[in-house]
């Protein structure tokens, strides 16, 4: 239990610091990663992608938020369908689901799928 709490705090710090440049100004898009404790594919994503996510174009357009799947859907978003598997990455724009990636196979597959999703984001208006 204690290791799980420590891991979530450390992951939160990495996500927070990696997304700092993206927090200036209003963000229309957000990538929400639904995860579960003990999820091997969630850990692989955290090792492969998380350290650089906030420095990428996609990370700038859609900062990452981690949500424990057992906590349910955050109140500030509306999903097109329930999330049943971890990890599931849901791209949200102004609180509404734009699309999702279910599962994590590799960083190459993730970046390709995410690029197609972030192309659907509306540009921020002044």
UniProtKB/TrEMBL annotation:
Q: What is this protein called?
A: Thioredoxin fold domain-containing protein
Q: Sorted alphabetically, which SUPFAM superfamilies does this protein's record hold?
A: Thioredoxin-like (SSF52833)
Please verify whether the record's keywords include Kinase.
Answer: no
Keyword Signal set for record: yes
InterPro entries associated with the record: Thioredoxin-like_fold, Thioredoxin-like_sf
Annotated ranges, domain Thioredoxin-like fold: 29-114
For this UniProt record, the keywords arranged alphabetically read as follows:
Signal
